Fold:
Amino acid sequence: MSSLDLETIAALKALDDGDGFFAEMVNTFLDNAKVTFAQLHAAQIANDIRTLERAAHKLRGAASTIGAQNLMAMCEALETSAREGHIPDVAGAVAAIETELQQVRLALQAEMEN
Structure:
């Protein structure tokens, strides 16, 4: 299964009329996702559930905008668990999000080359 929703990617590319819109969207997502994931990871290490919830929420929204449906679902699950105050395997969830984020990064870079 692809890390990206190809319909969303096609819609974003269709908005690019040669002005670099798609590349700007991708680069903004990647830059922001790097910072937000660092916040998520730091919150996990500090056992700061509130910050973990906020970072997961922020990353979920960004993932949705760029068409990273798997990443969005993973962040939503972590966000919900954090809000409920019960995260059975926070380290595992954060590690899985990191792995998926790497896959999204590679997929987006490939889409920018097409």
The mean pLDDT is 94. Helices lie at 6-14, 21-46, 49-66, 69-84, 90-113.
